[in-house]
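Students often ask what a 'structure token' actually looks like in practice. Rather than answer in the abstract, let us consider Phosphorylase b kinase regulatory subunit, a protein of 530 residues. Its sequence is given first.
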Amino acid sequence: MGLQVIIFVLYLFYHVQNPVTGLLSAGTDHKDAWVRDNVYSILAVWGLGMAYRKNADRDEDKAKAYELEQRVVKLFGEFLLKCFTFEISGAFQVDKVEKFKRTQSTKDCLHAKYNSATCATVVGDDQWGHLQVDATSLYLLFLAQMTASGLRIIFTLDEVTFIQNLVFYIEAAYKVADYGIWERGDKTNQGIPELNASSVGMAKAALEAIDELDLFGAHGGHKSVIHVLPDEVEHCQSILYSMLPRASTSKEIDAGLLSIISYPAFAVEDINLVNLTKSEIISKLQGRYGCCRFLRDGYKTPREDPSRLHYDPAELKLFENIECEWPVFWTYFLIDGVFNEDKIQVEEYREALEGILIREKNGIVLMPELYAVPSEKVDEEYENPHSVDRIPVGKLPHLWGQSLYILSCLLAEGFLAAGEIDPLNRRFSTGFKPDVVVQVTVLAETNQIKNLLQDHGINVQSIADIHPLRVQPARILSNLYTMLGRNENMKLSGRPHRHIGVLGTSKLYVIRNQIFAFTPQVRTCLSILD
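Now compare that with the structural description of the same chain:
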């Protein structure tokens, strides 16, 4: 396996990674760099770098480990410094972050792909399904994981404030309809965004992972720490749990949910819901060559018309039972087996992958993007699903899948431990947790109210009695949060003025060496009695 890893990494370096920007193009014949694909594709490099450092017994090995780690840093840094803040046609991508925090419009979002050589955007705001909350969330999740592993990716406070604003960008994912992990939105492929469990789950994971993380690592201070309001995480969790195992309004189930219920997000804490979702994916989407993305997915099937961007709703029936199968999803099952210490699952999917990977003359194995039904056997497959031998179609290698396959092999063969690619311990999300005990403190706003309560046998303290701890209403906390992430140089205004939930006011805050508590925000309702 060692030779396979090294050759793949060399392929990345010399064929698809731009030497100037560090971005990974989709292939040798395709110069666009997708945010999501870049994050997944660089994981093999990150894993190999840690394996070298862990097992280095020579200076040469230490040098290789350092170079591999810096390749990762370069890619993540370039996305932050160039793509997310790039000026094109007089407008900065960073301006989109500022607008989207308030409008949550598909035309104000960050772009999903960029030119790998220039970091410029490649299509217009309304010419692609750019709003993909899961892609931005995936970037933040691995930024947090890699920073926790010891990599130094963020170097300035300007970058810190931008990351803080990216947190504000994704924190409302629970109510944002986007185009999802497959960039198409509604399954009918009409370009209609919808609420996607994969986006909500990845946003929840990113918010949890980056909360209270010092982006400068051991060299930071309070200014380089990222803050997340716990209410936003709770909102994401509530919506996610209400959706699963369904992926969205139009998709009954989606294999992309594997990234939510297991590595890398581990966003679901209910083990029963995890198992139910996994079971649904296996029973409804798994085939002989991998899993199809979702039911009636027409992408690259013989019956799809590639000259048209959208389908007619009635066309979906044409794709039934002939959906393309993606080997990449078996790598998720393989990694899941490693994390769960399920040797049977690990062996099952390693053997399955060995049977469908394409072997080159030099012995190198490559993972194709997907397997499709041959055009002359469509009717046969439609009548008898999973009976026809399929052919590899699309990119070869599929960088996202190849990278996860290599990472899974490094784990399965003992070169890496689970904790090394999950230093924030998200894999324990389904573990036992003690019951939450809710404690409520009653304070009298004035001494007059305090005395009145005492007359009725209720002994409480007044706000003045608990000095030096200061008590303020929740609207003050909301105002304070608007200062977080504010950066005049980058024209970032910080968090929009939004309601602060009960979890946000259940914490004590240290502000300029003073301890503050905030009362819950109460919404008064007037009822009209007949």
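One point worth highlighting: The first helix runs from residue 2 to 16. Ask yourself how you might have guessed this from the sequence alone, and why that guess would often be unreliable.
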